[in-house]
Amino acid sequence: MTTTAPPPTPPSLELKTYWCHECDMSVSLTSSHSPSPSPPLCPQCHTHFLELMDSPFSQNDADSFLHSSSSLFDVVFQDALLLLAPSPRKTHTTETILPIITVTETLLSLLDPNGVVLCAVCKDAISVDEEAKQLPCDHLYHSDCITPWLRLRSSCPLCRFRISEDENEDENDEDDEEDLNGADVMREMMARMAELSEDDFYGLRMTLNYIASRHELLHSNASGGGDHHDASSEVGGDVDGES
Amino acid sequence: MQASRARLFKEYKEVQREKTADPDIQLVCDDSNIFKWTALIKGPSETPFEGGIFQLAFSVPEHYPLQPPQVRFLTKIFHPNVHFKTGEICLDILKTAWSPAWTLQSVCRAIIALMAHPEPDSPLNCDSGNLLRSGDVKGYQSMARMYTRLAAMPKKG
Questions:
Q1: Where is the UBC core domain (chain B) (predicted)?
Q2: Do A42 and A76 touch, CB atoms closer than 8 A?
Q3: CA A115, CA A105: separation in Å to the nearest integer?
């Protein structure tokens, strides 16, 4: 039997797009549903290194994921991130060391020929008579803007200049201070978790408690402390009681 | 909260004013929520992402700019430092190296730089990282180009 007029789109033929890894380009091939399919061949380079590109990705399939991520997790993990920031104690002292100054016209014109200095935290101009802090690297910020940042990190937001601790701090045994910092972080995390427990989100507090107590256990073992910390013990008690 | 709002509004005005300043980045704030932004960035030239338009979603925390924004790729991308399924980005300035001097615009620039300079030693996409770590640059580029074509370019008829 012969057909005189073939249908415009034969149902047995399908146009498929492949990616040729040799040519680095997409190629369109017609594949037949015949019982003995031969592997597709790139019309450019005549190799078989082709990959079928038949999985259309939605541009927005990560969207639902993003919006479904609970704000609780954001809060907890952002908090944890901030608390685990290096040396929160040291920065607290540097924060109090840096004096609050009242901005003068002279200061502004010293920093900028036009006397326009932007606070890099709020991106607003710093004006005369406002309260500000000048870091040792000369960068100037609104006092209210830079102080919360210095509590987290003792570095300049613009140039990452590390603000040195005052000299008395340096005399302290570094290891001791590290341990205390660790304990402080733990205690503060426990306090935050205690706040969270008011609504006791999905047992999250339990999990974090467990992680925290494990962390504490490791911490005390690593610093040569005794084995008086039990992983199941109530946390929030005496965390800095290491001998 | 008030400080973050003020700062974001400042950035919004800056974006409106400097719309043509950086043709590779188009930042858009959600109509009803200033803490949600999306960005369209152009794949950098001379990379497998060239010619692609990639969509990013920003979720800005309450304590911004003391805390970094959370950024994800909404467009699929084959890159060692981007999670293939979730679009999560591994970039130091979005985590430990964050500074409040950064803006959403400069974060976009940093992500474009990351696209051009992947860090295969801290991979979120192990397949992609392993190709680069084993020295198969051609394989990495080919895969990345394929996914750019698949997900980041307008469909050809």
A1: 7-146
A2: no
A3: 7
A26·B146 Cβ contact <8 A: yes
Q: Is A160 in CB contact (< 8 Å) with chain B? A: yes
Phi–psi pair at B10, nearest 5 degrees = -60, -45
3-state secondary structure of A193: helix
Q: How far apart are CA A232 and CA A136, in angstroms?
A: 46
Query: For residue A174, what are its two tokens?
Result: 């570094």
Helix, coil or strand: residue A116: coil
Say whether residue B153 is in contact with chain A using an 8 A CB cutoff: no
ipTM of the complex: 0.87
Best of B18, B76, B147 to disrupt the A interface (most A CBs within 10 Å) is B76
pLDDT in tens, B90-145: 999 999 999 999 999 999 999 999 999 999 998 999 999 999 999 999 999 999 99
Q: Quick one: which of A18, A92, A20 has its CA closest to A52?
A: A18
Say if residue A166's pLDDT is above 50. Answer: no
Collapsing DSSP to helix, strand or coil, A170 comes out as helix
Q: Is B150 on the interface with A (CB under 8 A)?
A: yes
Q: For residue B11, give how far its alpha carbon lies from the nearest alpha carbon of chain A (Å).
A: 8
**Structure tokens, B46:** 């001379």
Question: Could you report the per-residue pLDDT of B34-72, keeping only the tens digit for each?
Answer: 999 999 999 999 999 999 999 999 999 999 999 999 999
